[in-house]
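[Solved] Which block belongs to which protein?

Original post:
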Amino acid sequence: MKNQISISYGFLIALAGSALMISLIALDLLGPKAISLNNDLIGGTVLFLMIYLFLLFGIFLVLKKKKDAADGELSLKSAFLNGSIVSLSTAVFSVLFTILFYEIVYPHYVDELIAALKEKMVSENISPDKIEEKLLERREYYQTGTQSAYSFIGNLITGFSFTLLLSLFLRTKKAQV
């Protein structure tokens, strides 16, 4: 299959992002315990930055491999096509891994997050009305469908942006088409 490398890298990027999220939960930098320890901002920032670094690095490696396989030649069209396949496959696999995480690996994740958030807000003497408003907002945000959509759209848009930039930098003069 011609695009197998690009699809495989998309799978690996999405898998790395999911493994990082699970690791951050285990280290109490994400999840219910992180909220009570005030570590959730750190963990969320690390996750956000690293997922996009994985994507950038993965697209770069695929384009480099394609260029090396073509004796140092890489057209803008070929670079953009291969980077786009990596981006799209990362987006699709990230949705699958998100669903797997929220529905099978840790099905009580949202409920535990909401409970931790409620406990924290109560301890901060926030009014009950404001607490309920915030918890409803957070429950919607953390739902599987919402997280899957954000994962898909975020990876796709960021991946296409990285692809465009990397395609412009890695293309060769001889292979301008």
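(Second protein starts here: sequence line, then its structure tokens.)
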Amino acid sequence: MYDNDSKTGTDYEYNHGLDEYMQQSYKMPYQPKSLGESLAILREYKDTLPHDKYVSIESTVRGQAIEYQYCDREDIDRLVRLAKGEITYEEGKKEIHESIEKMLEHNRQNN
């Protein structure tokens, strides 16, 4: 227990600052912390997609959020490119695999 309640606020600020530092130091993409943030990213693509494809991607983003997994810009960009036919399903899977491998390799080097 703390003698001074202000330490609780300090711990929060420290942890929040640490989170920002970790994202910068590992060059991680910003990870949305809510469905609203993911949908805000998707709205940037609204004028570039037919309505039915936009609604389909929105449904996917909402479905992920049920499990508290919020789509980031990279995920949404991949879904948009897939909907536009710019990449195939297999190419999308390959991109995801490469991204995971790169992150794991970076973690191995820094640990």
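Accepted answer:
You had them paired correctly. Confirming on the second one: The first helix runs from residue 6 to 25.
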